[in-house]
Amino acid sequence: MGNGKWGNGRWGNGGVAAAAASGLGSGARAWQLSAMSMITIPLPDEDLNFLRAYSEAHGTSAEAFLARQAHNLRVRLQRPLRPEVATASGIISGEVAAEEAHREHVETKHA
To answer: Residues 6 or more apart from 98 whose CB is under 8 A from it?
Structure first.
């Protein structure tokens, strides 16, 4: 459940109760009827321990959490750009060194 250690909001417990009642971790039901493949991901012990503690605190398993994150990323990246973003795309030439221009602007502004 969203506690102070990991924050609330987008990492809250939406759907945890229903998923727990079905015996699955949060988000796991979304993939239970899909074809599944297995992967092995090497992680530093510190990151794996954090992932396990974070997922447990949010009522899910590390595997279900990672599956949900992968799914959300795919869905987000496959979504078309909003019209206002598409309209603005390409306004700034790729030849502009934007980071350098911004750094110079900030230096001048705060000089």
So the answer is: 92
